[in-house]
Amino acid sequence: MASHFIVECLDCGHQTPFIAGVTACINCKSEWRQAIYDYENISHSLPLELPGRPFDIWRYRELLPIRAPIPDLSMGEGGSPLIRAVNLGMMLGCSNIFIKDERQGPTASFKDRQAAITVSALKEAGITEAVVASTGNVAMAYSAFCARAGIRLWAFLTSLVPATKMREVALYGTQVIKVTGTYDKAKQLAAEFAKQRNIYCDSGPRSIPGLEAMKTIAFETAEQLTALFGPPEPDETGKKAIWQAPDWYVQAVSGGLGPLGVMKGFCELFKMGFINKIPKFACIQAEGCAPMVYAWNLGKDSAIPIQSPRTLISTLSTGDPGRAYTLLKQKMDEGSGGSFQAVSDEEAFRAMHYLAKMEGLSIEPAAAVAFAGMVKLIRDGTMKTDEIIIVNCSGHAMPIERNILGDGWSTNITLPTEAINESPEDGLLAALSNIGIERFPRIAIVDDHPDVRRLVRRILISQGNYTLFEASSGKEAVEVAKREHPNLMILDLMMPEMDGFSVLEALQQDPDTAEIPVIVLTAKELTADEKQRLQGHIRAMMQKGEFQGDDLIDEVRALLR
After folding, report:
1. One domain, residues 232 and 323
2. Of 26-35, 60-69, 234-243, which gets the smallest average pLDDT?
3. One domain for residues 395 and 446
4. Are 75 and 148 a contacting pair, CB within 8 Å?
5. Is residue 484 part of a domain?
6. Higher pLDDT residue, 32 or 533?
7. How many CB atoms lie within 10 A of CB 367?
8. Is 73 helix (H, G, I), strand (E, B) or coil?
9. What are phi and psi of 551, to 5 degrees?
10. For the chain, what is the mean pLDDT?
11. Same domain for 295 and 234?
12. pLDDT over 70 (residue 420)
């Protein structure tokens, strides 16, 4: 069967049909190649075909390197939801932050797309044995799809991969080789092993099926945004696009396969006239292994290898991304634009907490790196608050590692083995009484807008244990202060009937409440007289829509010491 696409070498331009087992250009031996499709015809035919197709990865089969998809291999990959980050957006003052929730795949990560397309290509080519090097998610995804396809898999995993993940990989029947060394060393060993046995070895960003699979994130996102916002307005020439593109796409980066593939997807949509712009890309790395960020900051076209990664986030520990960085930077320089940013492990772990507690999403550390990087870029003004931002939530937080939660994350209840003269119910009540909720610092949240109270509550809950009280009016705030004696009050100034200034005066007049420290949270631009009225009566003031969750937490912790 004739293929609907060709493969072109990025170095010599030589074009050939695609053969899954051939991983280099037959003319110059370069391993960097790209798939090219009949974009002109597809631009006319695809919009007519889509309405009758399921919303999954195979919806875009004309733009994938598979001649005939095998339905029996599919496990529902692709079609992940796009979720508005309502509470996070409120905290950051950005109403259009959307989460591409890739946790919904068969093995709970965006690597399911890569595995689904690659394994389908291997099966189509009659390949029965393969090798991968992985920090966890790739091995998991390939193991599941290879098991379904009847392909024997060898997985070279670094010793940093949690044992629970290694065991699940082995459960699929994959032969696990544990490498005590860096991920780059595991890749070298995997490649040499595959060469000795003459079997297929996944090559990450150099892999055509893997790269093409990631394009589908761009395709889905554009369709989903169009459903939310409608198609964009015609450009200055009157040309109309049928789908909406975001302003920013954000992803944590290790080897570069993900953003390279997604970028190619948006470029193809632009080439076919489906979208009218290519989004800017934010590529985020862990500070302890950020070769791309270092090269970007120095204005270099090649990545600066990191010999000894120093990050607890093992899935992002590629010390030498090679040409992937060069290609990403080239695309950004050519017009899409963007930024590389590094975040600390601590910032990523903090993001895991506030995504779980504010948005109800348990995310892997690598995904948290993306969110932490986005927060930095919003704070420094690189991302504007009115822009549409897509964050790749690349995987689920399974399992939760101890260093993420720290100590004191649970309260133990020891039930008595024998209860003398005590009913079972009495014994349970006695045990529950030992939880001691009242030992937590007590904070009163005062605002007449329930959304603001909810946001402040979630920020506090995300970063500590507090006993919280709420008041929706100034009068209620004074009553709560007298009744509950909070250790701290977070107070809005502009409320009907009794405003925040009056609340402060009432607190000061009562000896029982006069010493309660107050943080003012307001949207009002204060006059000089109003600032004078507050002087000496509050400990801090923050503007709504401008403060960050960390700012509030820092103030709270400082006042409760």
Report:
1. yes
2. 234-243
3. no
4. yes
5. yes
6. 32
7. 31
8. helix
9. -60, -45
10. 88
11. yes
12. no
CA angle, 201 as apex, 199 and 205 as ends, to 5°? 155
Is residue 425 one of the residues assigned to a domain? Answer: no
Integer-rounded Cα Rg, in Å, for the chain is 27
- Rounded to whole angstroms, how far apart are CA atoms 392 and 369? 10
The model's pTM is 0.82
Please write the tens of the pLDDT for every residue from 345-379.
999 998 998 899 889 999 999 999 999 999 999 98
Q: Are 98 and 119 in contact (CB under 8 A)?
A: no
Measured CA to CA, the distance from residue 36 to residue 208 in angstroms comes to: 11
Length of the chain measured in residues:
561
Amino acid making up residue 345: D
Q: What is the mean pLDDT of residues 492-510?
A: 92
State the Cα–Cα distance between residues 548 and 460, nearest whole angstrom: 12
- Final residue before a domain boundary, out of 349, 376, 403: 403
| pLDDT tier for residue 431 given thresholds of 50, 70 and 90 | very low
Range of the domain at 474: 441-560
CATH number at residue 259: 3.40.50.1100
Residue 549's pLDDT is what?
A: 59
Q: Which of 382, 403, 424 is the last residue of a domain?
A: 403
- Angle of helix 450-463 relative to helix 345-359, nearest 10 degrees, comes to 140
Q: Is residue 62 part of a domain?
A: no
Q: Which residue has the tokens 């919003």?
A: 378
The percentage of residues in the chain with a pLDDT greater than 90, rounded to a whole number, is 68
Q: In whole angstroms, what is the distance from residue 29 CA to residue 311 CA?
A: 35
* Amino acid 415: pLDDT: 52
113 falls within a domain: no
Q: Which of 290, 286, 304, 258 is nearest to 370 (CA)?
A: 286
Residues linked to residue 446 through DSSP beta bridges, in sequence order = 471, 491
Q: What is the Cα–Cα distance from 321 to 130, expressed in whole angstroms?
A: 22
9: tokens are 């070498």
Number of Cβ atoms within 10 Å of the Cβ of 139: 29
